[in-house]
Amino acid sequence: MHIVETILNHKSIRSFKPDIIPAEVMNEILAAGSRASTTGNMQVYSVVVTKNQKIKNQLWESHFKQEMVKQAPVVLTFCADFNRFNKWCKVRQAVPGYDNFLSFFTAAIDALLAAQNVAIAAEAHKLGICYLGTTTYMAEKIIDILNLPKFVVPVTTLVVGYPANDPGLTDRLPLHGVIHNETYTDYSTEQIDEIYSEKESMELTRQLLKENNKETLAQVFTDNRYTKKDNVAFSQALLSVLKKQGFMNNEIV
Amino acid sequence: MHIVETILNHKSIRSFKPDIIPAEVMNEILAAGSRASTTGNMQVYSVVVTKNQKIKNQLWESHFKQEMVKQAPVVLTFCADFNRFNKWCKVRQAVPGYDNFLSFFTAAIDALLAAQNVAIAAEAHKLGICYLGTTTYMAEKIIDILNLPKFVVPVTTLVVGYPANDPGLTDRLPLHGVIHNETYTDYSTEQIDEIYSEKESMELTRQLLKENNKETLAQVFTDNRYTKKDNVAFSQALLSVLKKQGFMNNEIV
Fold first, then answer.
1. pTM for the whole structure
2. Which of A7, A94, A129 sits opposite B35 (nearest CB)?
3. Residues 57-76 of chain A whose Cβ lies under 8 A from any Cβ of chain B
4. What is the ipTM of this complex?
5. Of A160, A189, A217, A234, which is least surrounded by CB within 10 A?
6. pLDDT tens-digit profile of B126-143?
């Protein structure tokens, strides 16, 4: 399949066959991750490859008990990682200054670009993947489970395996809804209506409104799926993890 | 070319031919971006496509005057964007709770996964790309240039165009240096020596040590390329941008 076709055909897979992923396939998709662009070629990320069922069960607890975490043959945790780089500096008579927020964010970018390379390479091998947003919500527990040292923070997770079903393509906003020409043009109410009209008229949306007893799809997001209360709690937790892992020394000393 | 081959063959391109990118190619690579995974299918990112030379020149100033920003036919600024989603909520009788750090980071993940899809799709079309890490350092100026409203923060930039040269593959650490099995195994000094030995013995490294008058490659990073002083200044600037753009209300009110 042509490469862009593979990308355009992406579907998140949440149900997997028990089939093992051959070692050479696993190696190739991880190698694909390592070719992603990385700031200054520092490669300030790590990938933890978890196959052991006992550890996957612990991760499953952290990821809000989503069944796919137990079921997938492989769980990949992508981490912002300045630990390796810092250790290298220290044994090479260099004093690292990477204990700050900018360094965390730089390392997070490295980890996320590598993750998307792995996702596409996996799909090219007819594997299915799903990202777990719960990684940042539950970073502290994941740090415990995976023994992540200081200067390592998990930023996303991919479950990987052979798809047990074909969920079909998910809807997207029309392309012009997310693209701006030359500079940013803010959205008028009419434009918001137009951009969201297809999504709002879907059968899936009607079902969601009924199930959640809501008048609008936006309310399903604000009141049920991604609430301010949860977001604030997870913000505090994530900022506290960044501090604990050594990334919040943002003052010249 | 097979998809994984394209990924494994990635090189950052910093010099471009003047050739224009055909509209249908541009459209296809941006569409590839929009198929990337996105948290809860919220698509909380935007891409600003800049071709106008005057605006590119302004961006060039912000991106540390890197020549490729002026020269590339297209500059793509990928933004964490909750503005569109918030506006949608407000006109649909929903109260958005996305003015916090977790929401920013969620939106940044969306933007970065989309960026990497665009990068790969561009390379599949024989275009070359380079990421600009300066985006987060200079976010405040880029916000001004591109008129980014509240709840929009630029997180990365791609310059895109037809390559004027072939810089060859960049070195990477051996794959086992960035991969951990089951859980994280911290690095011993012997392992650090082994992982970095190939990089340290490269001719490029010898040149860098000479040019920078340093004893170790690590010192080139800590003393010249990514200094603590710069990192702290850019950390403060980025955190202040997050606050200004509305993403640092992390307390329940």
1. 0.98
2. A7
3. none
4. 0.98
5. A189
6. 999 999 999 999 999 999
